[in-house]
Write a structure and sequence with these properties.
This protein has 194 residues and is of the alpha/beta class. 50% of the residues lie in helices and 12% in strands. It is globular and about 50 Å long. The termini are far apart.
Length: 194
């Protein structure tokens, strides 16, 4: 299979994943962002990078947004929202912070493949984005190959992470429309320290 064919198959799979996100959940997520005093974003690994990209665009839109774990992150309070990006919904560091957030009275939103996970149970809002399907045929690579069951298009959590990135970038455009912002206005808040 060529790299071009792999890219085509991956974009088809991403489109399929994105169509399955519940519209009512999206509307609640958007309303929560628009109604929050401040936004705190968190994730580990590649999911954390997706969250950081979303935080950057929210900042360009003029939101008070912070990435959890940075030295300039203030305390979270009631009226704020904590957005966790975690495909598994059980990443230990993110789960620990979510538990703390719950005790402090801020709203919790999770972007996950597993809404029934520990973080999903803590959350006020859930955006469910399917990840890759479990490998058929178990963990025996040779047995899967002999049975004609080949590896998925992407390793590990890549499908979730790419789908989450597409969803969150699309949410930025929705928020631009809701706030009546132009790309030029966003550009005025882009860093000039490059």
């Amino acid at each position: 299979m060529t790299i071009h064919r792999r890219m085509e198959l991956l974009t088809q799979k991403l489109a399929e994943q994105c169509r399955q996100i519940d519209r009512k959940s999206i509307d609640r997520f958007m309303a929560a962002i628009l109604g929050a005093k401040r936004i705190f974003i968190h994730g580990a690994g590649r999911s954390g990078l997706v969250g950081r990209a979303f935080a950057m665009r929210l900042m360009h839109l003029g939101f008070n947004v912070y990435v959890v774990g940075e030295t300039t992150t203030p305390p979270i309070r009631e009226g704020d929202i904590y957005i966790a990006v975690s495909g598994s919904g059980k990443t230990s560091t993110v789960l620990a912070i979510a538990k703390t957030v719950k005790t402090l009275g801020a709203q919790i939103a999770i972007i996950t493949s597993h809404p029934d996970s520990p973080m999903g149970e803590l959350a006020n809002l859930r955006i469910v984005i399917k990840g890759r399907e479990p490998t058929r045929g178990g963990h025996d690579y040779l047995a899967r190959q002999l049975a004609g069951q080949h590896e998925p298009l992407t390793p590990l959590g890549t499908l979730f992470e790419l789908s989450a990135m597409l969803f969150l970038d699309s949410m930025i455009e929705e928020l631009m429309i809701a706030k009546n912002k132009t790309e030029g206005e966003l550009k005025t808040l882009h860093t000039n320290l490059e």
